[in-house]
From TrEMBL:
The keyword GTP-binding does not apply. Residues 208-295 form the Peptidase M20 dimerisation domain. It comes from Flavobacterium rhizosphaerae. The lineage of its organism: Bacteria, Pseudomonadati, Bacteroidota, Flavobacteriia, Flavobacteriales. InterPro entries: Peptidase_M20, Peptidase_M20_dimer, Peptidase_M20C. This is Aminoacyl-histidine dipeptidase. Pfam families: M20_dimer, Peptidase_M20. It comes from the Bacteria. Keywords: Hydrolase. The keyword Glycoprotein does not apply.
Length: 487
């Protein structure tokens, strides 16, 4: 199957991507890919080492005639988001990604593809291996854990790198050059609750929300996509208000950086409301599907009666607080940037809702390019959940990357892009967590830029990479390397 991928052009890029995708590389479990990358550099006879947190650095001297150019750092992250469809049988810890070609797109079978940021990693590997590509001295930086905390970038010490320019290969539109990004903070709300006996004459139901698009909780947050946790809570709210629904458990969403696609809740209803409950729920379902018919045409909401009566249900007082808090908690765009057109400044993703066996846990990811606005929204969420007795903690905070419109390397890239394509690139800041802002804390004088090939549906099983864009991007990379300024 992956031989089809290896025959794509440019072969140097796609072959390295196929090699990489054969290696399991979940965030926080990067041992296999770290060993793979160190082995790759050592077999090339290049200086290769792992820093104290697990980042891999490989250094390659300039090709003949390029010794007077500035040393560059080329950087991508090794880990990938692991999401799969509910009906896909796949073990991310042991299996390589199964890829196939679909027209102009490379896709994976029922899982994320890993093009974010595997195509960046593969690009660097191809450059390091090549004996024909002209380039200045290179410091290849492969960071870990970008997707779930950016601990690799945070742990990189000053003094390990000498490069004056950093090329980050983690942007997902090939006509964009990124010069700034959002920072983020994890917001986690937790509390315990007592379970009550199931009332007599109750019937049990399972409610399932599925078929949503999902996507990147930063880059896709302004697209009007459905959030499975918010949709599920809307259903629970309506049935609690009208029929006294009681909650058994919720299993909704997954990773903080992915818009939740699925949620499953187990509930009970008094049998006297059985028919009315089903009828009313169908009306609410029809309303939701109508509202989301453009952005979520594959949305499914299924209500099934079950024969398994639970041992207990959530305390009604806690349940009422939980449902109202989730309704009140902000999800989606909070504020648009006043300085850059069409840029989301601040947002939140209610990523995970888990209710089971006396424990509630809610995971959010709050993003903003403005630190004070990020904390404003985080504190709003904190206040909402504290009102129902939750303990709320902030963690995994990372800074944004302040745009530098006077960046010298930006001018180089703009000139090359315009010459190659006949039009100017879009110079933007993105609502995602690029590592440039973090790396800049220990390397404040490094001139940084981010770009990459077109990737759609990142952080979801619909992730796909454009073959034509990869060819355009590869040509762009090669000319950038040839035009790095002199020291």
């Amino acid at each position: 199957m992956n031989n089809e991928i290896r025959n794509l052009e440019p072969k140097a890029l796609w072959n390295k991507f196929a090699d990489l995708n054969a290696v399991p590389r979940p965030s926080k479990k990067e041992e296999k890919v770290i060993a793979f990358m160190k082995d790759f550099g050592q077999k090339l006879g290049l200086e290769t080492f792992e820093d104290q947190v697990g980042n891999v650095i490989i250094k390659k001297p300039a090709t003949p005639g390029m010794e007077n150019r500035k040393t560059i750092v080329i950087q991508s992250h090794l880990d990938m988001v692991h999401q799969k469809n509910a009906d896909t049988n796949f073990d991310f810890d042991t299996q390589g990604i199964e890829m196939y070609v679909d027209g102009d797109w490379v896709r994976a079978k029922g899982t994320t593809l890993g093009a974010d940021n595997g195509l960046g990693v593969a690009t660097i590997m191809a450059i390091l291996e090549s004996k024909a590509i002209q380039h200045p001295a290179i410091e290849a930086l492969f960071t870990i854990d970008e997707e779930t905390g950016m601990t690799g970038a945070m742990g990189l010490k000053g003094g390990l790198l000498d490069g004056e320019i950093l090329l980050n290969l983690d942007t997902e539109e090939d006509d964009e050059i990124d010069i700034g990004c959002a920072g983020g903070v994890d917001v986690t709300a937790e509390r315990s609750y007592n379970e009550e006996e199931v009332p007599e004459n109750s019937v049990s139901y399972t409610i399932t929300v599925k078929g949503l698009s999902g996507g990147h909780s930063g880059m896709d947050i302004n697209k009007g996509l459905g959030n499975a946790n918010k949709i599920m809570n809307r259903l629970l709210f309506d049935s609690f208000e009208n029929f006294g629904l009681q909650l058994v458990e919720i299993n909704g969403g997954g990773l903080r950086n992915a818009i939740p696609r699925e949620s499953v809740a187990k509930v009970i209803i008094s049998e006297i409301f059985d028919e009315a409950f089903v009828f009313d729920m169908q009306e609410v379902i029809n309303d939701i599907k109508t509202e989301l018919k453009t952005t979520e045409p594959k949305l499914q909401i299924v209500i099934e009666k079950t024969n398994d009566m639970p041992a207990g249900v959530m305390d009604l007082g806690v349940q009422e607080g939980l449902i109202r808090a989730l309704y009140a908690a902000h999800n989606g765009v909070y504020r648009m940037s006043a300085d850059m057109e069409d840029l989301v400044e601040t947002s939140n993703n209610i990523a995970r809702v888990e209710v089971k066996e006396g424990k509630i846990k809610i995971n959010c990811l709050t993003r903003s390019s403005v630190e004070s606005s990020k904390m404003d929204l985080a504190n709003a969420l904190r206040s909402t959940f504290e009102l129902i007795g939750c303990e709320v903690t902030f963690g995994g905070a990372y800074p944004g990357w302040t745009p530098n419109v006077n960046s010298p390397i930006l001018e180089v890239l703009k000139d090359i892009y315009t010459k190659q394509n006949g039009n100017e690139p879009n110079v933007v800041a993105c609502h995602a967590g690029l590592e440039c802002g973090i790396l800049g804390t220990n390397y404040p004088d490094m001139d940084m830029i981010s770009f990459g090939p077109t990737i759609k549906g990142a952080h979801s099983p619909d992730e796909r990479a454009s073959i034509g864009s990869a060819q355009k991007y590869w040509k762009f990379v090669l000319e950038i390397l040839e035009n790095i300024p002199v020291k």
